[in-house]
Amino acid sequence: MMTEKKNRLLIFDLLRIISIILIVALHVAEEKVPSLSSFLAPLLTNIGIGNIINDALGNWGVIIFIIVSGAVIEYTYGPKLSSNFNYRNFMEKRLIRIYPAYWLSLGLAIAFDKVFLNLPVSPVEFLKSFTGFQTYFQEQVLGGEINGVGWFVGLIVVMYLLYPMLSKILKEYGFPALFFIILLSYFIGMSLPVGAQNTPYWCPLARLSDFTLGIYIIQKGAYPRYETKSQVIKFLSDLSFPMFLTNFFLARMFRILPDGNYINVVVYIFALFFFSLVIYYFDISFKIAYETYRDRTINAVKSLCGFIRGTFTSV
């Protein structure tokens, strides 16, 4: 996630756009849409380096997404860790960037399922999904039944919690630490049961390698320094997370749309952009309102404390 305090780097914006394209295409391919099945079939094919990094082509979009998340966090906060880093403020900003958009996507997913698929949603399932840690409750469906990409919320929150420690370890020990973390993630991923939950896919310990690789890339300066000049690229990059949150449950519309002449694909793309924009602008409005409320509350508390202090001092 980018902030206005540092220049946007083109490489990260482009990688986020590429990753969301791969993720969306993968979820459409998993729906086995007749008019697209042959074209998108390669996305379901495993590629990689032997058995070390071997995943479906579409899933590489998730790998890229996590690597970029680690890289951008280090790019933004890395220089602050040794001086004026505030862990509480850091986590507050991270959670505000994730949860409001995610909660709105849950509401949209429930509405979509009720209106078009008539799928029931239990209160217990909703509460689990609301936390973003539904997969930790031994769900039978990866990410929960409401919004299947919800597993990412729990994963990235854990990564953010671990970030200061991971960054300091990599600064202290460099490549040997990265190599150890990659091996640890690999062996943990290999030892975890796959099953319906696909545990290695969402387990933070199995994903540490992706996140820490992003951190390491920034620390070593192994990335192009070109800044993002295009407003279109910035916008599409910012839209990637809302698209990530909406693409999976919207892909269910292929189950009810007639297949033919690619009209269903056009309808899906239109719906994806529309609901992503809804989340995008809601997210912006929420953050502005939250920051305004937060600042007013802090100022009010300071004023009250000053008044009380002045009253006792005069007495």
Automatic annotation (TrEMBL):
What membrane topology is given? Multi-pass membrane protein
* GO terms assigned for molecular function: acyltransferase activity
Q: Where is the Acyltransferase domain?
A: 12-184
Q: Which domain of life, per UniProt? A: Archaea
Pfam families linked to this entry: Acyl_transf_3
| Location in or out of the cell | Cell membrane
Show the stretches that span the lipid bilayer: 9-29, 57-77, 98-121, 141-163, 175-193, 262-282
Name the principal localization, coarsely classed.
Answer: membrane
Q: What is this protein called?
A: Acyltransferase family protein
